[in-house]
User: Fold this.
Amino acid sequence: MKIKPVHPFAARMAPEIAFEVLDGLRPKSLVLDPMSGSGTVLRTISELGFEGLGFDVDPLAVLMAKAWTSKMDPEAFLIQTKALIDTASQLTPDNILLPWIDDDQETSDFIRFWFGAEQIADLRKLSYVIHFQVADFTDLFRIALSRLIITKTSGASLAADVSHSRPHKVREVNDFDVFDGFRLACNKLARSIIPEKLFGKVQVDRGDARHLSRVKSNSIDSIITSPPYLNALDYMRGHKLSLVWLGYKIGELKTIRGSSVGAEKAPDNFDKILQAKQITRNINGLYTLPQRKINMIYRYALDMENIMRESSRVLKKNRNATFVVGNSSLQGVYIENTLITEQAAELCGLKLIHTREREIPPNKRYLPPPKDSTVSNFNARMRTEAVMTFKKI
Assistant:
């Protein structure tokens, strides 16, 4: 099954995983992806005619999933694109106020560091019109704007490797044409969304897999998701370059980043350290690490327990939850996130019934920025991911 993504996203789940898991599920079943990322699972759900719920803490991920699962009239969208560009191009600096940038020094400084003056001027125009004037296709226009920035090489920023969440400044000047790039991005969206393939209704929103308060208990027929794993990808490092044009301050994005699953922090609640030790008890070499790293792993274990507890609560009895899990390496110690996931699930009434290893294509093995020799060891191990299926008992 081939589906065209609407936006670059590092480590996107393979749609064939969702296709295999959903095979045999009753029509109109309600499927949940509580960490939806770019929306691959949700798009697959809709194309197969199921109902879907998706959540993510990353605002850009939510936008991607919404855009990818929204029905739209391509012709009307392109007409509105032309009108938007015409309106934006006629604006002057005096007409534009972006409060989250102009009233926030940290965000303003961030933009001046990562973007050239000419691109800043044009991005401000597009951002203003999209944020304050556009009524239709707003999410699609936001995604088109983000596509100018979240790129591998050439884009609206002064950085490279943004799409892999490894941005680094590679130039001081830029000749990128923002309006022309925006027009091309909108054309690509009109071709790739293919609304006639969307059969099932999908709802996507900001939300935390550890706290699914908006999902009723025993209401979900199947769960398919891929949780973050330790020391792998910091999505916000790249995403914040576009989110600052979509209404977010750097301080807000730091808060999201610091509270996300896999954050390199100690647990917020040390009263549960005994629980964390139980979940991580089978990790070889854990206690050879510095205490700061051990605390980070404890936090991850407690996050996974909360995810599994909420997954178990919302899942119907005897139904399955599938987690696609990758392992990690910290200072040369191999951290089997699969063991953490299995133990956390068992504590929450989810029994592992099947595991299979899936080879990750080399061009999809996105790694953290290299800091020392352990990254090459990590690369050697990160050739597969585990597709783990649990049943609620």
